Amino acid sequence: MEQADRKLQPFKGLEPIVIPPKGWINTVRTALKMSLRQLGNRLKISPQSVKEIEEREANGSLTIKSLREAGLALNLKLVYGFVPMDGSIQKMIEKRARELALEIISRTSQSMKLENQENREERLKKAMEIKTSEIIDKMPKYLWD
Fold it and tell me: Is 75 left (phi over 0), alpha (psi -120 to 50) or beta?
């Protein structure tokens, strides 16, 4: 978990980067004042195929392999990764463990209510903390179900 977080760390600052509407290939090619034909020659494909690659990148259907190849033809290195929406892998796990613990504690609490043995709020909070820690420690297979 910590190792994965360390590997994802360099990507954290990249969150605010906005992908150009026409994609990076078109943006860089245009900035270099390189024609479709010239990029096509570098990729050993037709200008029309370059245009299709740019369109596929813009609509999100270009493969990573093709993106990497186009980048190399533009003298660029493709770098990709993920940024956890919750800030880290650890926080993702903690959030999911809390959700799961709440489900479990709520079911148990409901059963006890029906049997007229309702728990106090403070006791429920303590049970939530314990169950959350237990789930994090054991990392059960059903965590992501």
Answer: left
